[in-house]
Design goal:
Length: about 425
């Protein structure tokens, strides 16, 4: 872990040096432009562009007024894109890019996509994203529980700033390649992931079926980084796993809240009751969240009549999500949590806890109590932005705080590695045995 921290510092100073180099290069290019006495030409182009932009804006007022959501509208009043921005972009493109690069080497589509991404990145919201049409399609497909990749849940490790594999799927490409839970992905195909947003890092790891990806992995206890080559494949997320433990204690794990999860949960939950379940362990460890509707559907099968959660946006607009209370769980219940229990899984944990239906065992949850909304655009692309905060039934916003367990118990990774014993699960079983006496 210390080595990753040092690498993080090296990446930081490397970024500073790279920035100095790039700045110096740009200044040199501008100096060349000045030496070649093209200032007057540039000013002339600016004037021409400004005139054409203002004319276009003027002629399009009637059409844009009836369609204010049109994402390609150009406004010169600073509300979207100012004429100064357009002028500067054209100046850079005409007098620098086109002058020093072959036009056939310039990918203007990629240039535009990166500009759109930069607008969203500038918001300073680590959860906000711009998606190309292809990326948006992949994202929707993965929310249905099917995608092409390595077969693991991934979250951002806050301590190192790199993605961490929180759960490897059984019989997945990742499992076959020897990857383990809690492996930290330092690089993909030799490219460091430091500074990447989670969605961008995941996009590098995923790819078409039968293609390979090389991962540079930090594994706790290993003497050096590990290089792992994974052949990507079709992955169907097994979001629910369950089994009956001793003394009528049912164990049900939800790894993510996808569209397929509601049906998987319902079948598992019913099966455990049919087997004579007298108490239950709901394992939400390393569950990074997912679909709100899925959580509400699961809550409908366990919670009493009342609020499951409510959200508030920056204007104070409140939306309540309520349960009819027809299927309240009436047996002893433990919810297992850890530092990667986040977002929608915290919502369910908070509701079960606030209504006094569950004892929470494990470690403090992640603390992601905000809601992201996806807005598709007309060309098939889309943006995801944070729109509101959510609250537990008792009015607690857990964003940045998380949910503290009733019984704090650290996970013993060494015990599991050597003896395959899950100390938190063992404790939960013993706890429920006492409840059943």
């Amino acid at each position: 872990m210390e080595e990753l921290t040092r690498e993080k510092k090296r990446s930081f100073w490397g970024g500073i040096l790279a920035g100095v180099f790039v700045t110096g290069t740009l200044l040199t290019i501008l100096f060349i432009v000045l030496l070649e006495k093209e200032t007057k030409l540039a000013e002339q182009r600016i004037s021409e562009v400004a005139t054409s932009v203002q004319g276009a804006a003027s002629s399009s007022q009637s059409s844009t007024s009836s369609n204010t959501s049109k994402e390609t509208s150009v406004k010169t009043d600073g509300s979207l894109i100012s004429s100064d921005f357009v002028d500067k972009a054209n100046l850079i493109y005409d007098n620098v890019v086109k002058k020093f690069y072959f036009e056939e080497d310039i990918d203007t589509s990629k240039m535009y996509e990166n500009m759109y991404k930069a607008i969203i990145d500038s918001l300073g919201d680590k959860y906000a994203e711009y998606y190309t049409a292809e990326e948006l399609d992949e994202m929707f497909m993965s929310s249905e529980g099917i995608y092409y990749g390595i077969g693991s849940y991934v979250m951002m490790d806050e301590e190192t700033g790199y993605p961490i594999l929180t759960k490897i799927f059984k019989d997945s490409p990742a499992a076959r390649a020897g990857l383990l839970d809690n492996d930290i992905i330092y690089a993909v195909n030799g490219e460091s992931l430091f500074g990447y947003k989670l969605d961008d890092a995941v996009a590098l790891i995923r790819g078409p079926e039968n293609t390979t990806v090389n991962l540079t992995v930090y594994r706790e206890g290993a003497p050096d980084y590990i290089e792992v080559t994974v052949t990507r494949g079709k992955v169907e997320s097994p979001t629910v796993e369950y089994e009956m433990k001793e003394d009528g204690i049912g164990y049900l794990q939800i790894t993510e809240f996808d569209e397929v999860t509601t049906d998987q949960f319902t079948k598992a939950y019913s099966s455990l009751y049919e087997q004579g379940m007298k108490a239950m362990i709901l394992d939400l460890r390393s569950n990074g969240g997912g679909n709100l509707d899925t959580v509400l559907n699961i809550g409908e099968q366990m919670l009493p009549k009342g609020i499951i959660t409510y959200t508030e946006d920056k204007q104070g607009k409140r939306d309540e999500y309520k349960c009819r209370g027809k299927n309240v769980i009436s047996i002893p219940l433990v919810v297992l949590t850890n530092e990667y229990t986040a977002s929608a899984s915290e919502l369910l944990t908070g509701a079960l806890h606030d209504y006094g239906l569950a004892t929470v065992i494990g470690t403090n949850t992640y603390g992601k109590g905000i809601v992201q909304t996806i807005y598709p655009l007309s060309d098939g692309s889309g943006i995801k932005i944070t729109t509101s905060r959510y609250y537990t039934p008792n009015g607690v916003c857990i964003h940045g705080e998380g949910i503290a367990p009733d019984i704090e118990l650290e996970y013993d990774s060494e015990l599991y590695a050597t003896e395959k014993i899950d100390n938190q699960l063992v404790y939960a079983i013993d706890f429920l045995k006492e409840k059943l006496k």
